[in-house]
Amino acid sequence: MDIVRKRSAAVAVLIAFLAMSCASSSSLQQTWQEDKKAIVGGLGGAAAGGLIAAAITKSPAGIIGGALLGGLVGGAVGTYLDQRDKELQQQATMKALETTPSGSSIPWRNPNTGNSGSVTPVKTYQEPSGQYCREYQQVITVGGEKQTAYGTACRMPDGSWKITS
Questions:
Q1: Counting runs of H as helices and runs of E as strands, what totals does the chain give?
Q2: Residue 14 lies inside a defined structural domain of this protein
Q3: Domain annotation covers residue 96
Q4: Res 66: pLDDT
């Protein structure tokens, strides 16, 4: 690879990195904690896109375009994996609220990310208005770190469950 293509690839990766880090440092830190896979996927995609474009073309604009496109695709893939975790967690929550006896857990696990969790209804009661509600415990393990949360959901007139706290 000649010097122009090497410099263009380096500039493309730098531009992609700077574009992704335009937020304030506290915002970036929060984003990093919430969506590591999207950020890492975006940076990896930008680097790969820039390098592939550098191998194909000598045009700096083509290399920069390849880096930007690679960053978008890589970020989308990272976000999708996190989205799947949320979908599995939501499915487990709805199943636990709808059909699971108090004290029994509904587990979920995403084999693509290794993230997992469980939802356990702990109490079922009826409001004075007649509305049924359930208190539940949720345990989620992300990156080996276990987090526990508690909440309440109530059945809506259409039969769905709405998380109220």
A1: 4, 5
A2: yes
A3: no
A4: 57
